[in-house]
């Protein structure tokens, strides 16, 4: 560390009780240790301590889910939040690390010794052996996670993949990413500035904390509401001329040429806005709000992680409270195509898509498979949790699934860039507008921050779904061109359509603390370190910090 950084650490420590040690450097290499040991006699009060640490073999893979460790703060020490922790200890600060700190941490051992004046051992007065922490196994598929990380590289956005029939999360990516070991070794001012970039927000888990207008992916909810309420059926025709007049205002379709006479199948396949404008007026805002809630929007999904964003579904009453103005019909048109006040998270949209795929069940998203204690005995096993059923007749869902299959496989479908040669994918594109049409310029001249958000939700195979995906690219442009190709890459990897890479793991589970024999798993316990906490960041007996 630089002299300035060390002095800052020492100054910050002046507010601590005198008996609480101050860590001034972590992760000493052997050369630094040798130089330090040679001078320790001239550094009263300075000592080297060996501690276990975290090892990240795959670097910045899934850090928003796994979380990170950090040195326990003075506030945490005084609050008794971590009763078995001491000053200088590393504790979970974020993600799974924080949520399951109690299970993973274990308990340190200690030994009380009696020595003579020369420091020679006389006897062991007392001893308490360390208690190892539990092993936590995730549902994440490492192969798929790595493919998702690669597909989302150089983007700002989120991707989440679920098993439709269980709610198990198979991959979760929030981009850009970060290296979790930064927090354990100490963050430089330059790194901290990058992590707090207000535009890309690397520390923000966009999968469950990012809230965006869902755009045309919301038309799935609209179609279900219209069919269930018998406002439309598969043969109902609305005419699209490229715009829809409401009073003095004109609401445009994304295709200014218009779609002509349009039924439900064509409206979903080609994502006709005018069709859903008219459907929205027929339904009314109250019905749209109710079905939004029924599909899990405007509320948290129930995932066992803190700080989940519930999204937002606007009501007439909210509009009056917020703006002191009544609801306008034009606002009904906006929410009918997933614009206006409506906000959803990628996790909500993936869960919604999975429910359509599985026949109408909203499952709680789960990321944990099991927790095992000593002798590999399972102490907690996480089962699927069906939280609610969609109030939609099976025949209505069948019509929607047929149209979603056409979105990808029909020659006029907006999602054809997710098409696979041997497996039918069903999906829906979405383009969430950021600025008003009247203020828009040509895409190539528009600043990145004013470009549309790109959505794509999908599941495959269309007949017997195994995987449901939501992809959101911030300011990516059109969902069909920016998000659908990324979803295709994930499906390709899942079904191993492309030539498979060498297997990275023999199992479909990623463990935070797998057994020592678990070759290829992302985290490994080191043998010669007390089993009180995760995996050591450094080799056994290697100095950790002074």
**Structural classification:** alpha+beta
CA radius of gyration is: 27 Å
Shape: elongated
The total beta strand count reads 19
Task: Record the strand order, biggest sheet.
Answer: 7-6-18-17-16
**CATH homologous superfamily of the domain at 142-495 - what is it?**
DD-peptidase/beta-lactamase superfamily
Strand fraction: 15-25%
CATH class descriptor of the domain at 142-495:
Alpha Beta
Q: Which segments are poorly predicted (pLDDT under 50) over 5 or more consecutive residues?
A: 505-546
Please identify, by name, the CATH architecture of the domain at 142-495. 3-Layer(aba) Sandwich
Main sheet: strands, sense, barrel: 5 strands, antiparallel
Mean pLDDT: 86
Helix content: 25-40%
Query: What is the CATH topology classification name of the domain at 142-495?
Result: Beta-lactamase
Terminal CA distance reads 12 Å
The count of helical stretches stands at 18
